[in-house]
Amino acid sequence: MSAVSSGPSSALEFVEVSADDPRSIELIAEVQAVYRRLYGSEDDSPMSSAEFEPPSGTFLLAMEAEGHPIGCVGLRRHEDHVAEIKRMYVRLRYRRHGYARAMLVAAENRARLLGYTAIVLETGQVQPEAMALYVGHGYQPIPGFGHYRCAPGSRSFGRKL
């Protein structure tokens, strides 16, 4: 676990777990519900929980001081030295407190530890807050990739570490 300052009076801890952990499953179900509401369907990108296991990946839960999970972020291998962020999610009541940025930094730090030199991710144009977070953190638009590379509303971003 590692603690990250997340606001004036609280600490955010990151716990590495399996993507099959019950807490992970609960958060993934929540983010899939958001996708159904925003896009009309779940994210059906091919993936398995094994992709988020070390040494090429990780799945992090962001935990508030009382030990409740407030969000998650997965990291998997995209190419030899490039990681992909998947399932980045912050529960609604915890938004606008800097937690998403702290989760992004934690994922980038873990990617560096795993030997990656760049990160890519996908989001959708109906998620302007997510796009603003990524651009504000130094991510640049890149050509589409992966399962949604040809989807008209998909937006891909990347950043060197």
Notes on the protein architecture:
This protein is α+β, with helices and mostly antiparallel strands. It has a single domain, classed as Gcn5-related N-acetyltransferase (GNAT) (Aminopeptidase, 3-Layer(aba) Sandwich). Helix content is 26%, strand content 33%. An 8-stranded mixed sheet has the order 1-2-3-4-5-6-8-7, with helices on both faces.
Features:
26% helix, disordered N terminus, Aminopeptidase, alpha+beta, single chain, 161 residues, globular
What is the structure about, briefly put?
The protein contains three helices and eight strands, in the order ββαβββαβαββ. It has helices at 22-39, 99-113, 128-136; strands at residues 2-5, 11-16, 58-63, 69-79, 82-90, 118-124, 140-142, 154-160. An eight-stranded mixed β-sheet has the order 1-2-3-4-5-6-8-7, with helices on both faces.
Topology:
Layout (H helix, E strand, L loop, with lengths): L1 E4 L5 E6 L5 H18 L18 E6 L5 E11 L2 E9 L8 H15 L4 E7 L3 H9 L3 E3 L11 E7 L1
Parallel strand pairs: 5-6
Antiparallel strand pairs: 1-2, 2-3, 3-4, 4-5, 6-8, 7-8
Largest sheet: 8 strands, mixed
CATH topology: Aminopeptidase
SS strand fraction:
25-35%
Overall shape: it is: globular
How many strand segments? Answer: 8
Q: What is the helical fraction, as a range of percent?
A: 25-40%
Please provide the ordered H/E string of secondary-structure elements. Answer: EEHEEEHEHEE
Average of per-residue pLDDT values: 91
The low-confidence parts are 1-9
The largest beta-sheet arranges its strands as: 1-2-3-4-5-6-8-7
Find the CATH superfamily. Gcn5-related N-acetyltransferase (GNAT)
Write down the domain tally. 1
- Per CATH, the architecture is 3-Layer(aba) Sandwich
